[in-house]
Amino acid sequence: MITVHIVDDHKILVEGLKKLVDNSGFARTTAVSYTGKDCLWKLNFEQPQVILLDINLPDWSGIDLCNVIKEKYPQVKVVALTSYSEYSIVRQMLENGASGYIIKNAMPEEILLGLQAVTNNETFLCEEIDLLMNKRSLEQIWLTPREKVLLKYIVDGYTNPEIAEQMFLAVDTINNYRKKLLCKLNARNTAVLVRIALEQKLV
Amino acid sequence: MITVHIVDDHKILVEGLKKLVDNSGFARTTAVSYTGKDCLWKLNFEQPQVILLDINLPDWSGIDLCNVIKEKYPQVKVVALTSYSEYSIVRQMLENGASGYIIKNAMPEEILLGLQAVTNNETFLCEEIDLLMNKRSLEQIWLTPREKVLLKYIVDGYTNPEIAEQMFLAVDTINNYRKKLLCKLNARNTAVLVRIALEQKLV
DNA sequence: AATAAAAACTCCCTTTTGGGTCTATTTTTC
DNA sequence: GAAAAATAGACCCAAAAGGGAGTTTTTATT
């Protein structure tokens, strides 16, 4: 029996999920948490084999929570179960130690396939995400650490002089980075830059 | 028995939802659709008393779909069931004829309360949304039609001269609107303006 | 019909953005 | 150890954004 801890604040979804897991014949739900805090608390007492983890929790980002969980309990497999289908989110989850990524509109069977796969030490991506990661891996924009920091400042509304001061760099340098960002994200101006950054969840 | 048609592409959630409705004792699921097209097709043959409608459908925006449904079948009650909790989205749904609005992390019982309320010709908002709508109704930013159009152009990356041409107005006029938008949305520059517009789903 | 409020529109002027081109370290990767 | 990428910086200049201070036209409301 694969033991599963469900972490999701969508209570109706949790009900469906619990039924699905418990009726699979090879897995059972041993815990349910509606918040990140609740999840961490319960992990003190009992560690499941797999955690089904939502990203939009009321108190935590699932991305950060995944990281914390994997540090404290490296043997526990984390499977992201969320409605985000952005490259950068998937990537971050995998970098933070997730063993699987399933979007919420996937077929219910994919959840069960995922549970089996990750307990066999495989990495599992649901069909749609698998396609995304393969298709985009080439054309995907990759920002350098500095570019990411700058992008954050821009989205937060700082001007070049202000950013220069914050980052201890010349205004010209910031301006250059900014232009490179526009080019990389194929944005014609700041407005589009911000839109793309938010849409692709780059910040 | 209240007849319910569920429209949502999150198949696992639908399972939970179906169970919830069917076990309520006063309602039953008569149809399930995973797409907007599918929903409209099924409505040709059978109209439920209530439609539980997601906003993020693969082929349709639930906001537009609600409008279409209410035009063709005014007697059918539409209840939005979604994860969006932005003022403007709720507002648009209600303007398009929705009788209820429930967020996905609401308590399951709220769904049942909602079904009962809307069949009694009441408007039903789940607790969190009800709070939001009351709290924000005063402080909520309200944009004029022109401002909305302009905001769309800005978010899409058009410059003032381009917008002026598109809207057959002077560049100065556009510039003024832009400044008014900055002021209204409390944004110090375009970057923040775009961020707020996207976050608040004003476009 | 009077009037107040909101919406639509214009001009001036400064700061910020963005396009182009170029140099020089440092770090990473093959 | 060479090539490639990342980091940091510079200068010129045109275009766009944004601050301030106005006028006219619609649209409500009494």
* Number of beta strands of chain A: 6
For the biggest sheet of chain A, the summary is: 6 strands, parallel
* Domains of chain A, number: 2
Count the DSSP helices of chain A: 10
- Quaternary form: homodimer
Please give the share of residues in helix of chain A: 40-55%
CATH top level label of the largest domain in chain A = Alpha Beta
Short description:
In chain A, 53% of the residues lie in helices and 14% in strands.
Descriptors for this entry?
homodimer; 203 residues; alpha/beta; Rossmann fold; Arc Repressor Mutant, subunit A; 2 domains; 6-stranded parallel sheet; 10 helices; DNA-binding
Notes on the protein architecture:
- The structure is a homodimer of 203-residue chains.
- Chain A has two domains: 2-134, Rossmann fold, CATH 3.40.50; 138-199, Orthogonal Bundle (Arc Repressor Mutant, subunit A), CATH 1.10.10.10.
- In chain A, 53% of the residues lie in helices and 14% in strands.
- Chain A contains ten helices and six strands.
- Chain A has a six-stranded parallel β-sheet with strand order 2-1-3-4-5-6, with helices on both faces.
- In chain A, helix 8 (160-167) packs across helix 9.
- The radius of gyration of chain A is 20 Å and the shape is elongated.
- The N and C termini of chain A lie far apart (39 Å).
- The structure holds a DNA duplex (30 and 30 nucleotides).
